[in-house]
Amino acid sequence: MVSYIWLFLIIIGIGYSFLTGNLDVINDSILTNGNDALDLMLSILPIIVLWTGIMKIAEVSGLLQKFAKLVEPILSRLFPSVPKDNPALGFIASNIAANMMGLGSAATPFGLKAMSELQKINDKKDTASVAMITFLVLNTAGVTIVPTTVLALRIAHGSANPSEIILPGVIATFCSSIGGLLLDYFIRRRNKQ
Amino acid sequence: MNMFSKIVIPIFIVFVIFYGFKKKVNIYDAFLEGAKEGLMISFNIFPSIIAMVFAINIFLDSNFVNAVLGVFTPVLNLINIPLEIMPMALLRPISGTATLAIMNDIFIKYGPDSYVGRLASVLQGCTDTTIYVLALYFSSIGVKRIRYSLSVGLFADLVGITVAFLITMLFF
What we know:
Helices cover 78% and strands 0% of the residues of chain A. Chain A is mainly alpha-helical. Chain A is globular.
C-alpha cells in the first residue's frame, strides 16, 4: 500500500514538473532532500530519546501498569465477548496507556500480545473477531495526550507555545474514538439481529 | 487555557520521576535504558523518513497541489480550510511518516504558529495510521478476512480530521 503511495508521489511530482518545464526545481529538490530529512530527524530525535527515557521510569516503577488498571473496568464494558479475567484486557489497557503517553512504539508489543490473546478465543482463525475490531478501532483512533514528535518539531521550528495544540488534539482524538466506537457498536448490534 | 497547556508536561514529568524515586527505582539507570531504546527506535525510522521526505518534497515542489487541487480553492476558502493542508488530510490514514514530512514542510514555509501550522499539528496528533495498524496487527496473527474493520477505522479518521478542522478554528 505504502509502495503505491510512494510511487504515486514521485511519478506525479516528476511527471508534472516535466510537463510544466520545471525540472530545475525538481533537480534542486532531489539534491537538497537529504538535508531536509536529516534536519527533520535531528529535530525529533532528542525528544523521542528523552521521552522514552522518562516513560521507562513510569514503566519500571509500575505507574504505567497502575494507569492500565484504572482503565480496565471501562474496557470490560467495551469488550463484552471477552471474559473478565482474560489477559487480553490487560494487554489492551497497557497498549492504550502507552499510546496515550505518546509511546507509539512501546505500545505496539502490548497490542500484538493483545491480538494473539484475542486470537485464542476466536472461533474462526482466519476471520477477524468482533473484539479484535473494537480493539483496532480504539487503537487506530490513536488516543494521544502527549504527541511527542509534533511537540519536538514545533519546538525545533521556534514555536512560541509548542504545547498549545495538546488540548485541541485531545478533543479531536477523543471524538475520533467515540465516533469509531459508536459505528462499531451499531454494526455489532445489526449483525446480531 | 494557555497556562494549562504550558504546565501539563512539566507536572507530568515531575510526577513520573518522583513516583519512580518513591518506589525505590534507580531512576537514572531506568532513564538511560529507556533513552537507549528511544535511540534505537529513531535509527529504525530514519530510512523511512529519508524515503518519505524525498517523495513528498518532489511532490510538493512540483506545484501539482496548487495547480490541480487549486480548482477547489474557492470551496475550501468558503469553509476556511487552507489548500496546503489537503495532502496531509488525505494521507493521514495511510502513512504517518508522509504526513510528518508534509507537516515539516508547512512549518518551514509558514511557521508552527501560523493557522495552517497549528492545524497540521492537531491533525498529526489526533489519529494513528489506520491502514498500517490494521495490516501489522492482523498479519501478526494470520487473520485474512478483516470484515468491517477498515471502514470503521477510516470512519474514525474522518471524524477525527473533521473535528481537528473545527476545533482549530474555534481555538485559534
